[in-house]
Design a protein that fits this description.
The protein is mainly alpha-helical and about 230 residues long. About 70% of the residues lie in helices and about 0% in strands.
Length: about 230
Amino acid sequence: MKGKQPSIAPRQYLDLLSEKFLKEGDPLRAEQQHAYTRRQFAYYGLGAPQWMAIAKEFFHEHGVYSGHQLEEFIHGCFEQEYREIHFVGLQMMEQMLKYQDRSWIGVLEYCITTQSWWDTVDWIAKLTGKHFQSYPEQQHVYARKWISSDHMWLQRVAIIHQLFYREKTDEALLFEMILAVADSKEFFLRKACGWALRQHAKVFPDHVRTFIESHKLSGLTVREARKQLLRG
């Protein structure tokens, strides 16, 4: 069941939500959060438990969008300057993701490349992985498109979207993505490669060990991968 559909337009929904966040937010905490993200985003000063509780209340009271209105709502969220609003857009998307068709990859791509930082991008990577499970014919096409781009966050998602796949990980694709950026100096890509290998080592440690011994990878990538291998 998709649940109740909102009777108000997405813009009005966002206005009401913003008013609630502003009322409940902590300005001092907001400044600390702003500094933590290198002053890239404004904050209301809400912790995750707070904004999630408010969002849950709003979803229950007003409903959640589907179809074109859901896309409009998410775009509206990502056009806002406040980070908590971006998070709410992803929260509603996650709740409704299973109802989306293959064209939803366009919305995911938009979110990856808009208001980008690791906190939203890593969440979207998980949603992208779920989308690819529903539409597996898109996985190789978009992973290769993104890894070949000059956009770091698209590349990161190409690397880490399989984190929760475990035994179903497309190992050949994973290794291909990692090797494609093996020479990168970007911290977030080196870290992503190590994270993906560390996760894969939980299931196939010998495969990961052979891979890192057979290729020239960054020190950060190898250290991250070996964290799991040393546990084994």
